[in-house]
Amino acid sequence: MRLVLLGAPGSGKGTQAKLLTEKLHVPHISTGDLLRAAVAAETPLGQAAKEVMDRGELVSDDIVLGMLKERLQADDAAKGFILDGFPRNLVQAEMLDQLLGEIDMPVEHAVLIQVDPEEVVARIAKRAEAEGRADDTEEVVRHRLGVYRQQTEPVVEHYRQAGVLSEVHGTGSIEEVQQRILEVLRF
């Protein structure tokens, strides 16, 4: 199963990806984790990413996609993957489609976890308090939601037009949301 999880910050993508990995027996791939691991391992792409990050800039899509290509060609991804939080914009979605076409692993499903924006704000505030994260203020969260609407919602439409998008209601218990996802995946 080749799955892309979409949703606003705080919608539960990471939580659901970790749980789905166990059910679907495919790896959960987070581009943030890939970047950190490549930098720590000092791979050529990791060194390139570190130079960019040390300058306070965003890592280019080309570097991220290079890391993603390497990761998707690992043995454990042969049967599929769960991408969490990537692609974040339409350009990345198109680049991902091209990459996956080159390695003959096109996206089979994209699931959008829908959560009311006010619930997202409350979830992230609770998470920030529990984890001691001062950067997740209400103002910052609302800004991130605005960026999400502007940049990521076109990705949702991209997958809708491709005929692979399903939407699930993301409120309720973690188990209830997982069950909704499994139902749309027909698993």
Key features of this structure:
globular; five-stranded parallel sheet; Rossmann fold; alpha/beta; 187 residues; 2 domains; 59% helix
Word description of this protein:
- 59% of the residues lie in helices and 12% in strands.
- The protein has a five-stranded parallel beta sheet with strand order 2-3-1-4-5, with helices on both faces.
- It has helices at residues 13-24, 31-41, 44-54, 61-72, 90-102, 117-131, 138-162, 174-184, and strands at residues 2-6, 28-30, 81-84, 109-114, 165-169.
- The mean pLDDT is 92.
- It folds into two domains: 2-27 and 81-184, 3-Layer(aba) Sandwich (Rossmann fold); 28-73, no CATH class.
- It is α/β, with parallel strands linked by helices.
Look at the structure and give the CATH class of the largest domain. Answer: Alpha Beta
Our estimate of the beta-strand percent is 5-15%
What is the C-alpha radius of gyration, as a whole number of Å? 16 Å
Largest sheet: 5 strands, parallel
Q: Under CATH, the topology of the largest domain is which? A: Rossmann fold
Q: How many helix segments?
A: 8
Specify the overall morphology.
globular
Record the strand order, biggest sheet: 2-3-1-4-5
At the fourth level of CATH, the homologous superfamily of the largest domain is P-loop containing nucleotide triphosphate hydrolases
Distance between the termini: 10 Å
